[in-house]
Write a structure and sequence with these properties.
Layout: E1 15-20, H1 26-37, E2 41-51, E3 57-65, H2 74-92, E4 95-96
Antiparallel strand pairs: 1-3, 1-4, 2-3
């Protein structure tokens, strides 16, 4: 076994879920993500789209980070992910879930 029980834990959410507004677009999200993480963003993928009975739409995106030069640390990814979430919330006026 490569890792002992309890030795490896995910410290970041591997995806971001939020309620969107009418002006939200996936392209705007990608611009914000790349603005924060630059070339470390390998992929931004919509993995869930849900509209509730009140007409509010929630989308869930998975963001893959990758470096061709080195291994990324959990701390680096955690910081990037939290910065992305903050920027998406403030710039795109979405409500994080």
């Amino acid at each position: 076994m490569q890792f002992l029980k309890g030795q490896l834990g995910v410290k970041f959410k591997p995806f971001s879920k939020f309620w969107i507004n009418e002006s939200f677009t996936g392209n705007n999200l990608c611009e914000v993500v790349r603005g924060v993480a630059g070339d470390l963003v390998a992929e931004v993928q919509l993995i869930d789209n849900f509209t509730n009975k009140k007409g509010m739409t929630s989308q869930c995106y998975q963001i893959a980070y990758r470096s061709m030069e080195r291994s990324l640390t959990d701390e680096e990814i955690n910081e990037l992910q939290w910065n992305v979430r903050e920027q998406v919330q403030s710039k795109l006026k979405v409500v994080l879930r």
